[in-house]
Design brief:
By secondary structure, this protein is an alpha+beta fold. 30% of the residues lie in helices and 19% in strands. The protein contains three helices and three strands, in the order E-H-H-E-E-H.
């Protein structure tokens, strides 16, 4: 984490954003006192909701039938 004053932040804003984009946090200070923090945005991970596809997926009985010989041969090569 780095700490920069407002003037430096304005002057080198693109460089600061590059550092933030690389995963680093930046503190912006006014007269030496921290007033803001710029942090990278984390990807939102959606939590799975069990059963949300219930009734939408149909697996036919033939799914469990043995594969045809010509396809099995392809797996063995």
């Amino acid at each position: 984490m780095i700490k920069v004053n407002i003037h430096e932040a304005k002057t080198h804003f693109s460089q600061i954003l590059n550092r933030v984009g690389s995963g680093e946090a930046v503190i912006i200070a006014k007269a030496g006192k921290p007033i803001a923090r710029i942090v990278p945005i984390k990807k939102e991970v959606k939590k799975r909701k069990p059963g949300s596809a219930k009734g939408r997926v149909i697996i036919k009985d033939s799914f469990f039938d043995p594969l045809p010989e010509n396809i099995l041969i392809e797996f063995e090569q």
